[in-house]
Amino acid sequence: MVNWKKIDLEFDEHAFKHGIKDYEIEQIFKGKIYKRKIYFNKELRYQIIGSAFGRLIMVIAASLGGNKLKVFSARIASEYKEIYDYKAK
To answer: What's 8-87's CATH class?
Structure first.
């Protein structure tokens, strides 16, 4: 089971293609997050939405075991603000 407050991140080469920086991705795990399981090509991944430096960011990541996640994508996600405000813990 992932301890979401003690995450060790690994980044895929495409993780930064939308202009989000590694320190912004790391920052979202220090506050409230909304997460849900999704499947991509039958692989379990997580959609994680959190706030960093005043911006709402969505991250797509897969568990590598323990508390390690591999981040595949990160982008601004202002369209998820209502969901984040209601469901983030």
So the answer is: alpha beta
